[in-house]
Write a structure and sequence with these properties.
Shape: globular
Distance between the termini: 58 Å
Number of strands: 8
Radius of gyration: 28 Å
Largest sheet: 4 strands, antiparallel
């Protein structure tokens, strides 16, 4: 056998093998894509006004059942559902309805909520638990303070905005389980709104 040719072929083979191993190592070092989650924030309104009674979706039936053991309200209705996707954090601004003090009050209600630094951690029993570093919800609600007459003797409301909200740090909840984050008063007497958060992993 021609020794130079043999050495050259051996060198070429080792070079190809080295490059192949290098590509394989680079492929194995590529980190997997971050897990994506579907985050649903829902607002329940509790009152004793049977005329405003509404059907609560089955996904919130356990939440309502628990709330009825803690509060004296007889009627619950779902007013708002917000669905977002994230692998880490959410910041959301929008308008809300059904919070005005008077039905003829056309002033909008502004809302804002944020959820920061989502992590998936196992609890003591090995079940997946979702932990957040921070959650905040704010709503600016119009409240009519008085009525004044304009030049044509028509009355118009004077509206001021009051803010309500809740913020909390480092809390946990289970995957795909509706969880009450907190309760807030509305501008209507004898009502409370409950913030319900549900988070589930998605492909």
């Amino acid at each position: 056998m021609n020794k130079p040719k043999f050495i050259f072929k051996l060198f070429l083979f080792l070079s190809v093998l080295s490059v192949t191993n290098s590509f394989a190592q680079n492929e194995t070092k590529t980190p997997p894509a971050d897990q994506c989650y579907e985050v649903v924030l829902q607002i329940l309104i509790a009152s004793n006004n049977a005329a405003e009674k509404n059907v609560v979706p089955p996904t919130l039936s356990n939440v309502v059942k628990k709330l009825k053991t803690l509060y004296a309200f007889s009627d619950y209705r779902l007013t708002t559902t917000s669905l977002q996707r994230t692998s880490n954090s959410i910041k959301y601004k929008s308008l809300l309805s059904d919070f005005s003090q008077n039905p003829d009050n056309a002033a909008p209600v502004f809302s804002e909520w944020a959820l920061m630094n989502l992590r998936n951690l196992p609890n003591s029993s090995g079940r997946n638990t979702l932990q957040f570093e921070y959650f905040k919800f704010d709503a600016r609600i119009p409240v009519m303070t008085e009525r004044v007459k304009d030049a044509s003797e028509k009355t118009a409301p004077i509206v001021n905005y009051d803010s309500v909200g809740i913020s909390t740090t480092r809390f946990s909840l289970s995957e795909n389980e509706a969880t009450v984050i907190g309760s807030l008063a509305t501008s209507k007497p004898g009502e409370l709104m409950f913030l319900v958060l549900t988070v589930k992993p998605v492909e």
